[in-house]
Design a protein that fits this description.
- The chain has 547 residues and is mostly helical.
- Helices cover 68% and strands 2% of the residues.
- The chain contains 23 helices and four strands.
- The protein has a two-stranded antiparallel ribbon. The protein has a two-stranded parallel ribbon with strand order 3-4.
- A hairpin with a 6-residue loop joins strand 1 and strand 2.
- It is globular and about 80 Å long.
- The N and C termini lie far apart (71 Å).
- The N terminus is likely disordered.
C-alpha cells in the first residue's frame, strides 16, 4: 500500500486544523455578541418568524430582497424551533462552508501556507467583522442574509464553472446554472456581478475551446435549464398563496425597487459609495495607490542594494519591520487603517487588463489563468457600490471581501514570485510584506474584539439571548433594552406593536406582531414605499401600541 509523504500529510491536516482552531476561538470570543439590538438585524429574525407562523412574504410582510433567504430561515425555524440560536448556528455552519470554499479556491492557485493565511484573514477581517460599534456586518448575524447566502452561492457557481472547464463534465455546468438561478432569486446586485463573471467564463471557453463543440453546447443548455428550474420552482410555490402574475411580480420586486427607487440619491448611500464627493474620493485613491507604489519601489531598491550582502538582509529587514511596528502603534487609535483598501479596484482593474492582453495574444487559457481572471472580474464588479470608497467596516465585510482577499494573494504570492523569476532575492521583500499584512490584520482584529468585549449585558431569554454593550455614551441602546423588557412584561401578547422608526427586534423578542406589512420606517423605506402609502397603512390598521 502506498504511503503518503509526511509533507503531503501535513498539508492535508495542518491547514484545516489551524483554520478550525482560529474559527472556534473567534466564535467563543464573540459568542452571542454579533448583532445590534436596535438597527437592521431585527427584521432578519422577525420576518422568518412571521413566515413560519403563516404570513405571506411581500403581501403580509414587505420585503425588498429576494425570497430565498427569508424562506430558508423560516424553514429552519419550523424544523429546529424559533430562536436566535437556530439562526446563528445555521450561519456558523454556512460560514464554515464558506471558509472551506475560500481555502480551496486559493489553494488551487497557491501553496497550503498562503491559502491558510488568506483564509484566516477572511475569518478575522470579514466573517467575524465588528469594526463599528454597530454589529450586523459579519457572516454570523448579517444585516441581510440575502447578501451572505448569495455570496456563498456565487463561490459555488464559480467553482462549478472552473470544474466544468477542467473536466468537461456537464454536471458542473448544471450546478453553475442552478447556483446562478438561486442568486437571481436572492440578491440582484450579486446576481448581476456573478452573471457577468459567468458570461465571461463561457466566452473564454468558446474562444479557447478547451473541449468539443458538442460538450460546450450541451453544457450551455444544461446551465440554462438548471438556471430556470429554481426560478420556476419558487414562483410555483409562491403561486399557491397568490396568483401567478403576482408571484412573478413579487420575485421581480427587488429589480424594480433598485431601478425605480433613487436610493443612490439618499445622502447615507452617497457617503457609503463615496459619491458624496467623487473628486475627493478619487484623489484619495490615487494618493494611496501612489504611496503603495512608491513604498514597493523603495523596498525593491533597498532589496537590490543588499541582496548580494546576505548578512545585511536580516538587520535591514528588522529595521524596516520595526519602523512599521512603531508607526502602527502611533496610529493605533486612528481610523486611517480603514482606508487602506481603497486602491483595491485599481489593482483588480490592472490585473484584469494584463490577463486579458495575455489571452488576446495567445488565444488560450490554462485552467489557473481562467479561474483567476473570472474571479477577479467577479470581485472587481462586486465593488461597484463602493468603487470610490472601498472599506470593510460595514457593508464591505461581504462585497469587498473577494477583492481584498484576491489582492492580498497577489501581494503575498504573485508579486514575490514575479520578482523571483527575475532572479531577485525576495527574502527581504517577503518579510516586510508579511509583517505589514500581519500588522493590518492585527489592528482590525483588535478593534473587532474590543467591540465584542464591550458587550456585557443581555436582552432576551434562552435561545433568544443577545449580548449588547451598556454605555453611558449611548443611552439610546440602554433605554431600548429596558423598553424590550417593559413591553414583554406589561403589554398583552395579542396586542400589536409598531416600532418607529427602527427596532423590530422588540417585536420578535416579545412576540408582538406589527399590524401593517411594513416594520421599519427609515429613509430607504420611505423612499421605496412612499410616505403617503405608509400613512394610509397605519391609518387603516393602527397599532395598539407605538414605541
Amino acid at each position: 500500500m502506498l504511503q503518503a509523504k509526511p509533507s503531503a500529510i501535513s498539508s492535508r491536516i495542518i491547514p484545516p486544523s489551524v483554520i478550525t482552531a482560529v474559527g472556534i476561538a473567534l466564535t467563543v470570543l464573540s459568542w452571542r455578541r454579533w448583532p445590534d439590538i436596535l438597527i437592521d438585524y431585527g427584521h432578519e429574525l422577525y420576518v422568518p418568524w412571521r413566515i413560519a407562523e403563516g404570513e405571506r412574504l411581500y403581501t403580509d410582510l414587505y420585503w425588498v430582497y429576494g425570497p430565498i433567504s427569508p424562506y430558508f430561515n423560516a424553514l429552519l425555524f419550523r424544523w429546529f424551533g424559533i430562536g436566535f440560536t437556530t439562526l446563528f448556528v445555521s450561519n456558523l455552519v454556512l460560514t464554515a462552508i464558506g471558509t472551506a470554499l475560500v481555502y480551496f479556491i486559493f489553494r488551487r492557485w497557491t501553496s497550503p501556507l498562503y491559502a491558510t493565511v488568506i483564509t484566516i484573514i477572511f475569518l478575522c477581517l470579514f466573517a467575524f467583522n465588528h469594526l463599528q460599534p454597530i454589529g450586523n456586518y459579519n457572516f454570523i448575524t448579517p444585516y441581510t442574509h440575502n447578501l451572505t447566502h448569495s455570496l456563498l452561492l456565487s463561490y459555488l457557481a464559480l467553482s462549478a464553472l472552473w470544474r466544468f472547464f477542467r473536466t468537461s463534465t456537464v454536471f458542473w455546468a448544471g450546478m453553475c446554472g442552478a447556483c446562478l438561478g438561486l442568486v437571481f432569486l436572492n440578491k440582484i446586485e450579486i446576481f448581476a456581478t456573478l452573471f457577468l463573471a459567468v458570461c465571461l467564463g463561457w466566452m473564454l471557453i468558446l474562444i479557447s475551446r478547451p473541449m468539443s463543440w458538442r460538450v460546450i453546447g450541451t453544457g450551455g443548455l444544461t446551465a440554462i435549464l438548471f438556471f430556470v428550474l429554481p426560478v420556476a420552482a419558487v414562483v410555483t410555490v409562491m403561486s399557491r398563496q397568490v396568483p401567478w402574475p403576482t408571484a412573478w411580480d413579487n420575485v421581480m420586486f427587488q429589480w424594480s425597487a433598485i431601478i425605480d427607487t433613487p436610493i443612490t440619491q439618499i445622502h447615507f448611500f452617497k457617503v457609503l459609495m463615496g459619491t458624496d464627493d467623487s473628486s475627493k474620493s478619487l484623489g484619495q485613491i490615487l494618493i494611496l495607490t501612489t504611496g503603495y507604489a512608491l513604498a514597493l519601489g523603495v523596498l525593491i531598491w533597498i532589496n537590490s542594494r543588499i541582496q548580494k550582502r546576505l548578512k545585511c538582509v536580516v538587520p535591514v529587514g528588522m529595521v524596516i519591520v520595526g519602523a512599521l511596528a512603531v508607526t502602527a502603534w502611533c496610529f493605533r487609535e486612528h481610523r486611517i487603517w480603514i482606508h487602506l483598501f481603497r486602491p483595491v479596484p485599481l489593482l483588480l482593474l490592472l490585473y484584469i487588463l494584463i490577463e486579458s492582453a495575455i489571452f488576446l495574444k495567445h488565444r488560450r487559457f490554462d485552467p489557473l489563468r481562467f479561474e483567476k481572471l473570472t474571479f477577479a472580474v467577479f470581485a472587481g464588479v462586486l465593488l461597484w457600490k463602493m468603487l470610490f470608497r472601498v472599506y470593510i467596516d460595514s457593508f464591505g465585510f461581504a462585497i469587498a471581501g473577494p477583492g481584498c482577499l484576491f489582492c492580498l494573494y497577489l501581494l503575498l504570492d504573485s508579486f514575490p514570485a514575479w520578482l523571483h523569476r527575475r532572479r531577485t532575492d525576495i527574502r527581504l521583500v517577503q518579510g516586510v510584506l508579511w509583517s505589514g499584512v500581519v500588522l493590518v490584520v492585527a489592528w482590525h482584529l483588535w478593534i473587532s474584539l474590543g467591540h465584542y468585549f464591550e458587550k456585557t449585558a443581555a436582552v432576551g431569554r434562552g435561545t433568544d439571548r443577545i449580548m449588547y454593550a451598556p454605555s453611558e455614551s449611548n443611552p439610546l441602546v440602554e433605554s431600548w433594552a429596558t423598553m424590550i423588557e417593559y413591553v414583554e412584561k406589561h403589554i398583552p401578547r395579542d396586542a400589536t406593536v409598531s416600532t418607529i422608526p427602527e427596532g423590530v427586534l422588540l417585536n420578535y423578542l416579545t412576540r408582538h406582531r406589527t399590524p401593517v406589512p411594513i416594520y421599519h420606517f427609515n429613509p430607504f423605506a420611505l423612499s421605496l414605499y412612499g410616505e403617503d402609502h405608509i400613512i394610509d397603512l397605519l391609518t387603516t390598521h393602527p397599532p395598539d401600541y407605538v414605541v
